Amino acid sequence: MDKVKIPVGEALFKLLDCDLFDVEKPQPHIARHLEARMAALWAESGLLVEGKRPFTWIVQLQVPGPPYKSFCMYFGCPDRDLVFESDTPFGHVAKRFFEPVTSPGGDGGGQFGTNEKLHKWRNNTFKLIPRCVNAPFVVKRAVGEVPTLLGNKIQLLYYGPPSGDYFETDCNISSSRIAQYTIGLAIDRASVVIADLAFLLQGGVPAELPESLIGTVRIEHIVMRDATALDLSGSTSAP
Q1: Distance (Å, rounded) from C-alpha 113 to C-alpha 94?
Q2: What angle, 0 to 180 degrees and rounded to 10, lies between the N-to-C axes of helices 116-123 and 89-97?
Q3: Where are the alpha helices (DSSP H) in the chain?
Q4: Which residues, other chains included, contact 19 with Cβ-Cβ below 8 Å and sequence gap of 6+?
Q5: CA-CA distance, 44 to 187, in Å (whole number)?
Q6: Which DSSP letter does residue 99 get?
Q7: Domain spans, the chain
Q8: Long-range pairs of 90-95 with CB within 8 A, sequence gap ≥ 24
Q9: Nearest to residue 238, comparing CAs of 68, 6, 35, 13?
Q10: What gap in Å lies between CA 49 and CA 42, rounded to an integer?
């Protein structure tokens, strides 16, 4: 109400790792192929807490093709109670956002119950803050550094399986010509680009403020030809 901004603390989720996959076609709900990968990441993370159940959030950037690519970011919270049981500003938003309900139209691995109203609310809550640390001017100008409700720019689909062990957000770059153009510029110069991405859930009422960062990642000098082929016959192992 007073328009005053305050610095945020550290991100609540830790970045476990990132993967760049080669895929024959866009893969909705890619996490269903990555359960072994997620288990391996947690085993190697040193973040597991005895008696606590971890929670993983996957953000997938679906890169248009052909050739099609999938860039997956794995963010982990070692205690899922901080997401679903916490009486904090973040908890008030997170328990609804990460509810195990899949978006209407999500066709990756079955329906888990859908809710159009929840889907629209998620689109108006999930915010990306980008920053180009190093990139050619044309890429910096296209990407910008303005916080963006991503679901109002491109198609997002959300996957929340009944187990509640993970949640996936798919970002369909091909759903927007502007997004395709921007990502195309970045891909052409990916080997020299350094970019920071921060994700948060936007608060809408005083009880949901101040906002907290969910996770952050720095994308640095990606070599597209080094992408790993994704095994769709089952779970994938760590590359």
Answers
A1: 18
A2: 130
A3: 35-45, 81-84, 89-97, 116-123, 137-143, 177-188
A4: 37, 70, 71, 72, 74, 228, 239
A5: 30
A6: -
A7: 14-229
A8: 90/12, 90/201, 90/211, 90/212, 92/207, 92/208, 93/125, 93/201, 93/202, 93/203, 93/208, 94/201, 94/214
A9: 35
A10: 11
Q: Which helix or strand (DSSP H or E) is residue 149 part of?
A: strand 148-149
Q: What are the pLDDT tens digits along the chain (239 aa)?
A: 788 888 888 999 999 999 999 999 999 999 999 999 999 999 999 999 999 999 999 999 999 989 999 999 999 999 999 999 999 999 999 999 999 999 987 765 445 556 899 999 999 999 999 999 998 888 888 888 999 999 999 999 999 999 999 999 999 999 999 999 888 888 878 889 999 999 999 999 999 999 999 999 999 988 888 999 997 865 544 44
The residue type at 57: W
